[in-house]
Amino acid sequence: MTLQLIVQMAITGVTLGLIYGLIAIGLTLIFGVMRIIQYAHGEIYMLGAYFLYYWFDKWHLPYWAGFVMSAVVIFFFGAGLQLLLFRPLHGKDMLYSLAVSLALIFIISSAGIIAFGAVIRGISSFVTGQIRIAGAEWTYERMVIAGISLVLIIALWFLLQRTKIGLAMRAVAEDPETSSLQGINNRRIHWVAMGLGSALSAMAGCLMGTLMFIVPSMGFLATIKAFMIVIMGGLGSVPGALVGGFVIGFIDSFLTTLATSELAYIIGFVTIFVILVFKPSGLFGQAWE
Amino acid sequence: MALLDIQKVSMHFGGLKAIQNLDFTLKQGEIRGLIGPNGAGKTTLYNVISGVYIPTYGKFFFKGQDITKLRPHATAKLGIIRTFQAVTLFKHFTVLRNVLVGCHLNSHYSFFGSLFGTPGSTRHERENEVKAMEIIEFMGLARYRDELAMNLPHGHQRALGISIALAGQPQLLMLDEPVTGMNTEESAAMMKLIQKIRDRGITILLIEHDMKVVMGVCEKITVLNFGEKIAEGTPEEIQKNPDVHEAYLGGENYVA
Amino acid sequence: MNDNSTARLRRSPLLAVLLWVIGVTLLLAFPFIISQESYILHVAIVVFFNICLATSMWLIWSLGFVSFAHAGFMGIGAYTSALFLLRLGLPLWVGVWAGALVGAVIALVVSLPLMRTRAVYFFMASWAVGEVIKRIFAYYRSFFGGWEGLFKIMPPKLGPIDFANRTAYYYLAMALMVLIVLAVYRMNKTRTGWIFWSIHEAEVLSSHVGIHALKYKVAAFTIASTLAAMTGALYAHYHMYINPRSFDIWASEFALVHIIVGGLSTVAGPVLGATFLTIVDELLRPTEFYRIIIFGVILILTVLFLPGGLESIPRRIRARFWRLPDDKENQKSILKAFGKGRK
After folding, report:
1. Residue A226 sits in which domain range?
2. Which among A199, A208, B53, C226 has the fewest CB atoms less than 10 Å away?
3. Domain containing C101: what range?
4. Which pTM was predicted?
5. Residues in chain A closer than 8 A to C119 (CB atoms)
């Protein structure tokens, strides 16, 4: 356990934590505003990553333009899903939204395997070079990725806390009936929130794809992690999602370096179970029905 | 001995003190009114008594037994049954089925008996149906027997809620705003019904905003405000009480 | 479940009895009707296993929960029975009961804390349980065979009958299927079922009439998981090979899809759904991943356009082509089927 190793794990932990935070915030936003289980959130993440891959690696268009385009395209994709598929289920048992998003997982991940092939690829780096801290290597790429994630999270915070539409979203999340009585167009807020949540997921996918690799099955793993984080931090709680993201990011980083990843998973799931049993609303969440 | 004895009970939700240091006793056979402005803690008190919440401080006893920490199914078993302010029914069940479920407590149930359809178990089910129909007729719902609960008109839904409660054969029946949304005729019918129920030997606690009903049917009234008891007495005493007038501020709730 | 389902059947008992007699005869004679064609027998056996899994999962649904650990319990039964054979030399006849016992004990222990969680948290917690079960199988390689799994799980013999013969196994699987469907049907129809559904409909109200919700949730989960474990045992000795991936969340999810497509209200739902989708799955097998896409599409179409599932089709046909019946109860139930009753 050298200092170098610790610093390396910490750097990775921070970077992963921020990216996981992005996905989780997206999921918690969707759940908070619409009370639906978007089980296919990870598939959106995968689509975002592949979009950037094709844009940058295949069509050789500029990286950051692709990053933005991925977010925009997926924003509308998510909004479309909401309008077409989830809107008719509004107010019904949560089982139906679970069912529809489960169906989306089937469709999107299989379509992904067919379209992209089940091979592992990576989005090429947009910058090379690194600095060294205590012997550990911190690439410029990671720095930028961490930085962008942080910027996005702050931008989202700003959007939610300081803009009118953010206020509307929070209002609908807290009390949909009163919100609509106050003149908020719930329908619009729903697809905006869904689009936004999906865009965050897509951007996380782009960043993770650049950082690590992409493969059509990456979606499911991201979904597991996102739900773990969101449950831990409390459904509907954005700060909870962020804190949870860091926790999982660090655990990921430390455990996969130090322990076998199999055991890491077992421990992880047992912990989730224990948390849910003792703190049924997650660590930060409030009880809702 | 008091039927229900509440001693210095407080219910705090984080910083919110919903009930503060409440002392409250009920005698067997009473019809007691529980009134107060919205947010006074009346429904919270029901939730504490029935066991949905465990009080932050204090204890309460039913027929001498400490039931402070008992959950709803346990207090129901002891004979305390309540109704709900919002319509709470098994919406997709028929009226008969709703009441049959309410009979659960007072009928024998054996898992294997019902699974294999033993003669004993079949007999019990038939007995239950008889008991349930009796209550349905008593409440005037006989012609809706096979109607789905969610299709009933509002007033009948409330009557069904009370029927389910009665099916549990309560010793203490706690009603939560039973006449909400009813017109004068329906309220008068409800008042008669409450008296009929009491005549069957059931003690009744009644939360209600309609003062005509409260003053008309209750023998004694307890008034809550901000979680504290501010007055207790006969309807005449309560009507004259200045603290009560102030609590209701201008008498908008005063329908008398 | 509601009272409408039984009302429908009551209307023409003679027809119902006739249909049953024909159905049962077909089921029993099936292997000989198809001249014991091996592949079709295989599909039928898979249909039976899927019916078992979906129907037992439906029991938990009747209380209002979806357990993503369900396939995990199938795995517990499968591995127990397999290990009883491979390590102790005891055949399926012992293994299935051993699997049931182990499954029941683990389900009981797990469900005591698990059933305290609610709604979406339950789904995650049950998912966690399922994952842990699967990964324990994968992790302990020496005992459970790791990701590679266990081989040579031979089917048993009973006197002159060798269950390695597919026709024989057809009847065995069918027997289990009938047992499970009957048991779940019976539980659902009697008081136990009404208690479960009352907890599902309005748990607060049911507690207040004296129903100890937690007790029934634990009971339902344990019974259902035990039935899944028994299914697993038969599954193991049929395929003669198991690995942890057969019992992961995907398997639970497919069972859930069977229930949703088949219908959520009665026991006919999981039976119809499992039958229909398993056959569709087999027919589409050559298309590989497209088949999964089609599954997803079927699921979405069902949720959006046929929320009552396959079991609601007879009711809908009747409403469309015959006069609406006079009694209000059936009128309302038909309106409900078209989505007007529910809020």
Report:
1. 3-278
2. B53
3. 36-248
4. 0.88
5. 94, 289
